[in-house]
Design goal:
It holds the Pfam family PAP2. The protein has 180 residues and is mostly helical. The protein is built from seven helices and no strands.
Amino acid sequence: MDVAITQWINSFAGQNPLFDPIMIAITKVGVPFIVLMVVLQWWSREDRQHVRHVAICAGLAFLLGLAINQGVLLFIHRVRPYDAGMSHLLIAKSADWSFPSDHATASMSVAMTFALQKLPRRTLAFFAMAILVCLSRVYVGTHYLSDVLGGAATGIVAAIAVRLLYREDSKLDRFATSIL
């Protein structure tokens, strides 16, 4: 089923001269754009201390999620779908294994962080961006659907871990949120 859904999503790749560049752009600049949006939260006018805390948590979850992925990659060596002849690749080949998707981990860790901190409008925006990034990775042919689901799960776990371990209004948090 994973291969069938992956092939179905990827079957649209290379067929639409308008949609292909959009998906390629999302897959290339989606995560940097999300990072930029988190950074810009630092200058929020509403509930500044809390939003700054959330921005720090998002950064920590982002890094923790990617670190977890590096550990997973030591044990799971899944071939990319384009190397297995399962997808049509629209971007340059990747040098690492397919599972889990770092893009999905990075984007979903940020979205889940905002969800856990009860910032509903921001949460919706970040989840929309994360879903587009995840979908684009399958569309451009670089990941299976299960790769992005696995990456999303890693991002969610990282966000939950940061939520449990990094406390708002702790001495470290007060220092970090007072910068600038």
